[in-house]
Every structure is written in structure tokens, then in C-alpha cells.
């Protein structure tokens, strides 16, 4: 059973999502919250698999809530999906940087919302690698370069190469073919790079690759 926490300051949004999710046999809504601080508290209490989290909320916004959830060792299995009215913007980028697994616009089709919850619960990045790369590179090109990424100097040359290929939108199978290694070895390199950098998933690994300058925009 996939355990979901809803965090949004609009009661109507929470009620609609709760009704949709509760109708599924493999999904249950364990709690809902109206602000980020309450959301973090409920996440620590209920240990959800997926947190559907609004970006702009009172008391604590979704970016800080994401950061607190993503950095809590007891919530390592909780995957944050950002809810937004506007699509990919600065808030979403900062939430991905803070550890979110992806994002959804609030008017997304019900079927896509259910798919997103199941994908996030498996621990996969919600966005496909190619879409993640395109969106993040586009945003980074319009913002100042961030500082050094902590842990980048711990990566082996092989891990840096794999990280760059992830940032360019390649899947593990495509990385394996490009580097002439097995898909299992490619997956291992990706996992080790994520561990060393503290990245929760591939989406955050892409953010780090662009922010560190390992991959250049364009």
C-alpha cells in the first residue's frame, strides 16, 4: 500500500486529491496539512512513501518543507512531488535542488496524478531523464551559477562521466551502451554518485551536474 501525505493550503485541492487517491486499491492518504510546517510534522509522524507538496504556502513554504523532509534520515523513503499552478519555474527548480523527485501542475489529468504517485513511490525520478535535463538546463541558463557542489571531488572519473551522461538525458541502458559496460555497472555508478553527493534521485543528480559546471548549458 502506497502511503501518501497531502500538503496544500487550499482545502478544495486537498479534498479533491484525497477523494481521487482514496478510490485506488493500492493507495491510501495517511494525513493532510495546510502548511509546510504541519506537513513536515505529519511526515515525521506517519512516514509516508509520497508527499504531494504545494510550493507556495503560509508558515513554511514547500521549498523549506522539501529540504527538511529530504534531509531527515528517518524520512529516507519519503519522496516529495511538488504541486504547482504554473509548471516549471524558480520555485520548482529550487524544490528539485532541495530534494524533490519531480513536480506536477495541479490541473494534471487524474490518471497522470495516479501514475506520478506510483512512480515516485518506487523511488524513480518523476520526470524522464531527457525532460529533466531540458527543463533544468533551460532554467540554469537564466540564473547565476551556483557554488561548488559538496562531494563532487569524491567522485571517480568514471562516476563523473556517468553523472554527465545522466544530465544529458541518457538512461542506464544508454549509458551502458555509450561506455561499453553492463547496465548493472552503469546503475552502480549512478547509485554511487548519488550517494556521494547526497542526491535522492536522478533529478537531483541532474541539478548538481549543471550547478557544478560538470555539464554546460547548451
Summarize the structure.
Keywords: DNA-binding, Phosphoprotein, Transcription, Transcription regulation. This protein is of the alpha/beta class and 218 residues long.
CA distance, first residue to last residue? 42 Å
**Overall 3D shape:** globular
The low-pLDDT segments are none
Number of DSSP E strands: 5
SSE topology string: EHEHEHEHEHHHHHH
**Average pLDDT number:** 86
Strand order of the largest sheet: 2-1-3-4-5
The Cα radius of gyration reads 17 Å
Q: What's the total helix number?
A: 10
Amount of beta strand:
5-15%
- SS-based structural class? alpha/beta
Q: Which percent range fits the helix content?
A: 40-55%
Q: Characterize the main sheet.
A: 5 strands, parallel
Modified residues (4-aspartylphosphate): 54
Domain HTH luxR-type: 148-213
Keywords: DNA-binding, Phosphoprotein, Transcription, Transcription regulation
InterPro entries: CheY-like_superfamily (IPR011006), NreC/VraR/RcsB-like_REC (IPR058245), Sig_transdc_resp-reg_C-effctor (IPR016032), Sig_transdc_resp-reg_receiver (IPR001789), Tscrpt_reg_LuxR_C (IPR000792), WalR-like (IPR039420)
Task: Outline the structure in words.
The structure is a single chain. The chain has 218 residues and is α/β, with parallel strands linked by helices. It contains ten helices and five strands. The chain has helices spanning 11-22, 36-46, 62-70, 90-98, 110-121, 129-140, 157-167, 172-179, 183-197, 202-211, and strands spanning 2-7, 27-33, 50-54, 79-84, 102-105. A five-stranded parallel sheet has the order 2-1-3-4-5, sandwiched between helices. Helix 4 links the parallel strand 4 and strand 5. Helix 2 (36-46) runs parallel beside helix 3 and helix 8 packs across helix 9 (183-197). It is globular. It starts with a strand and ends in a 7-residue tail after the last helix. The model has no long low-confidence stretch (mean pLDDT 86). The modification 4-aspartylphosphate is found at residue 54. Residues 148-213 form the HTH luxR-type domain. Residues 3-121 form the Response regulatory domain. It comes from Kibdelosporangium persicum. Keywords: DNA-binding, Phosphoprotein, Transcription, Transcription regulation.
Amino acid at each position: 500500500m502506497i502511503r501518501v501525505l497531502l500538503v496544500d493550503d487550499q482545502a478544495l485541492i486537498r479534498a479533491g486529491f484525497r477523494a481521487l487517491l482514496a478510490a485506488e486499491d493500492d493507495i491510501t492518504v495517511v494525513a493532510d496539512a495546510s502548511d509546510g510546517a504541519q506537513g513536515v510534522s505529519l511526515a515525521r509522524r506517519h512516514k509516508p512513501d509520497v508527499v504531494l507538496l504545494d510550493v507556495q504556502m503560509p508558515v513554511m513554504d514547500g521549498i523549506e518543507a522539501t529540504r527538511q523532509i529530504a534531509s531527515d534520515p528517518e524520512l529516507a523513503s519519503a519522496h516529495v512531488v511538488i504541486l504547482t499552478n504554473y509548471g516549471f519555474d524558480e520555485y520548482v527548480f529550487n524544490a528539485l535542488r532541495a530534494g524533490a523527485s519531480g513536480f506536477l501542475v495541479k490541473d494534471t489529468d487524474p490518471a497522470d496524478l495516479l501514475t506520478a504517485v506510483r512512480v515516485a513511490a518506487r523511488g524513480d525520478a518523476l520526470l524522464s531523464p531527457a525532460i529533466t535535463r531540458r527543463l533544468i538546463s533551460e532554467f540554469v541558463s537564466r540564473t547565476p551559477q551556483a557554488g561548488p557542489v559538496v562531494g563532487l571531488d569524491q567522485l571517480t572519473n568514471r562516476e563523473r562521466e556517468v553523472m554527465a551522461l545522466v544530465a544529458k538525458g541518457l538512461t542506464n541502458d544508454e549509458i551502458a551502451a555509450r561506455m561499453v559496460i553492463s547496465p548493472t555497472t552503469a546503475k552502480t555508478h549512478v547509485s554511487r554518485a548519488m550517494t556521494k553527493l547526497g542526491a535522492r534521485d536522478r533529478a537531483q543528480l541532474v541539478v548538481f551536474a549543471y550547478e557544478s559546471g560538470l555539464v554546460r548549458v547548451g
